[in-house]
Automatic annotation (TrEMBL):
The lineage of its organism: Eukaryota, Sar, Alveolata, Dinophyceae, Suessiales. InterPro entries: P-loop_NTPase (IPR027417), Sulfotransfer_4 (IPR040632). This is Sulfotransferase family protein. Keywords: Signal. Residues 1-20 form the signal peptide. It comes from the Eukaryota. Pfam families: Sulfotransfer_4. It comes from Cladocopium goreaui.
Amino acid sequence: MGVAGLKLASWFLCTLMVDAFKLLDVGPPRTGTQTMHEVMKILGLKPLHTGYEAESVRPALCGYLFGNGSLDDALAVFGGYDAAMDEPAMLMYEEIMAAFPEAKFLLTISDAESWFENYVELSRELRATGTISLKAFFHSLPRNCSRMQSWGCNFANPSPEDKDTCLKSYHRHIQRVQDVIPPERLLVYNWSDGWSALSHFLGTRIPEEQFPHEDLVKRNAESHIEERLKA
C-alpha cells in the first residue's frame, strides 16, 4: 500500500486518538528496548513495549504485517500510547510515518555480531528455565511474531547459515530504516550519548535521574535458574 493509501486508511482512526503518537524505536529486540521503555517513562511519555504486552498487541500487528489483518487494527494498538518499541512494532515505521506526520523515530546503535550472540545467550538461558509457560507463550503468538522469526533468525543452536541469514536481515533493516525515514525525523542513537541527545531530539528537559538500565527478561531467566539450583 502506498503512502497516500496509508494516510487515507488511517486518517479517521488517528483523529480519534487523544494523544498524538510521538516516537517509535525502530531497533530490534535486544538492542536496549527495555531500557528505552524506562527512559521514555522518565521523559514523561507513555511507552508501549510490545514484548511486555505481547499476547494483547502482537496478534493485531503481526496479522497486518504477515497476514490479512487490517491496518486500522494494527494502528489501534498504539492508541493511548505516545511511544513504542520492540518486535514487531519496530517494523511499522512506514505506517507510523504516514499516519503520524509529527512522529519521530529512534535507531539505537548495536554491533550486529554482539546482538546475535546476546540473543543466543538469552535463548539458552530461557531454555534452561524449563518452564512450560514460556513454551506455551511462544506457541500462543502468531507465526513470525516472536524471536525475530520474520527475519529468518534461529537463536536456538543456530547453524552458520542461520546466523548469516539473520545478520543479513538485521543489516537490511538498519539500512532501510535510514534510507526511508527522513534524517530530520530519525535519531541514530548511541547509548553513550545519554540523556542529552534524546532530550534535544524530543524537545524535553534533561532529567536529573540517573540513566537507567533494564533487562527484565534476562533478569527473570537468571533468577529462575538460581531458584532451580537451590531446590
